[in-house]
Structure formats: C-alpha cells, structure tokens
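Agenda item 2: zinc ion complex prediction
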Amino acid sequence: MKAAVFDGKKIIIKTVSDPKIKDSQVLVHIKAVGICGTDLAIVNRDLPVITPIILGHELVGEVIKVGKDIDQSWLNKRVTSEINSNIDFDCYYCKQGLFTQCVSRKAIGIDIDGAFAEYIALESYLLHEIPDSISNDDATFIEPLAAAYQTFEMMPLDQNDKIIAIFGLGKLGLLITQVALSIGLKLIVIDGSDKKLNLGNQFGAHYLINRLNCKDIPNEIKDLTNGLGADIVIDTTGNPDALKDIIASCRTRGKIHVKSTHGIETPINLTDVVVRELTLYSSRCGPFEKAIDGLKSGKIEVGELISKKFNLNEIKQAFASYQESRDHIKTIIQI
Ligand SMILES: [Zn+2]
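Presented output:
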C-alpha cells in the first residue's frame, strides 16, 4: 500500500506492505485523516518518536476485512478509531476502566503506525461507527472533539466558575469554545488571527482579544472580569511562551487547564500558582460517544474549521500549509 512514512527527519511517500490483521482486528480502508498539532510537533522534532513510523490518528475509514474473533457485522461499516491501542485490560488503570491510561497502551500514529496510508489494522475495541449524517471530513473531528469534551470531564466546575478564557483558537480551541458555550460559560477568546476570532464570535464567544494588538493580555482580561481574572483559563496555543500570560490571567483560586502537547521543556515560574492557590488541570483523549452526538445533533459545527484538503501524495504541502498561515485551522488528508 501507499503510505506517508516519517523517517525521523522528513515524511516520504513510499510503498510498504499491507497491514495484516490479527483475529481481534479489522482492516480499515482509510478515507480521510486530520493533521493534528501532535503530528506537527513530531515532524518538527519537538516530540520524539521511534522511527520509521506512519503518523496520523484523526482517522475515518471503511472496514473491509474482519478478524475471526470479532463481530462480523463491522464489515462495510464507516468507522473512526480511538487512539490508545494495545490495551492489556488488566493493569491498575484498566481495572478502574481508565483504558486511555493503560500502562501497555500504544498511541496510534505516535507509538505505532497510524493512518496517513491506504489501510490500517485496528483492534475492534477502538472502533466507533459513524452515523450516515456525518461526512468523512466532519468525522475527522470526532477524536479532537472527544478531547474537547474531556476538558470538562476532568475539571469539575463549581458555582463560581462563570468566565472561561481560551488561549489559542486552533481546531481544539474552537471545539472547546463550542463545548464551553453549550454548558453556559461566558467566553473570552485570545488568538493572533482575526479570522479565527471572528469564527469564535460567530459561535458565540463574548469577548475577543487579538494578542497581536494587545500589550497586556492579563490586564485586559482583568478589565473584563471586575479586576479578578478569568475563573478558568485554557491553553490550546501549542506555545509554551503563552503560559506566563495564562497563569497571570487566572483569578486567585481559579483553574488552569493545559491541553497543548508542547513536546519541549517549558520553563515556568510556579510561584504565582502556589501563592494564589491556582489548580492545574490537564486532559487528553475523551468520550467518543459525546463527540459523535455533538456532531450528529448539530450542537457542534465543524464545517468552517476545515481550512484545506490534500491527497496523500501532497502530504508535505499539507504540513507546510499548516505551519505557514496564522489563519489555518485544520487540514484534512483525503485518501
Ligand atoms: Zn491496562
């Protein structure tokens, strides 16, 4: 099959052997894959991985072969996949149902071969069927949207949590924007792209801050919040340099939630976190059922988040275009 292989330095399109399925697996013919900030961090060599590897985990495809140990009705179904494979179902975390943190887990497209290819072998327990009403392109948002929902699964809110500031309006920031609005929070969004800020506004964000026109973001946020700061501040910037402003924008006893996998060491001064008793949260993979329901019901809109589409042969241009434009939100590789 044709695959985009990352060799540790660059991505090369080459022919590799077709994946062989085990009895517990299905073979999926890939239709579309989103490029994630994590893919970018790997290609930029900020996030080390064992190479050679096929990247890509925001996948959509059709099941074309089913292993003999699993339900044959998966055949011909359109599916997406969770990313944490090789689960042992037996470790400390699995026994609590926390399969995404299994000690044996291998992340698809990060630790083991992923989906920038024609085919992928997937364990059946990772699969989620995609309803007919969700297109292939839109379905590439299911995995990141699940991560957006997980923000609030991991961070219980209290009655004083009313204003949330989201730093970074990429794909994840704009998905969290919509989830936060759906639970009734007031939103301040911060980005360097007017295009993205306008999209945030279109979804219902209450205050927009263009960081390029704002000398003191924490001060601006305090002006909008009776001098206190935001109750919750989210980092989806992918930029560790933003963390100083993120901490300073959070009110005393507030919540900071880190979503970016920077991949690189981040020097931050935690004194302010201690003195003002801030709580630091983080989260990653989330509930796929909620994400599928969010798209199916129309509660979450993703059509306008798709910036560009490329085919597999054009994957290098696809990665380049992701990095080039400040206005870029999401690139999809169609296979
Ligand atoms: Zn386990």
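Discussion summary: The pocket of zinc ion is lined by residues 87-88, 90-91, 93-94, 102-104 (CB under 6 Å).
Owner for follow-up: CH.
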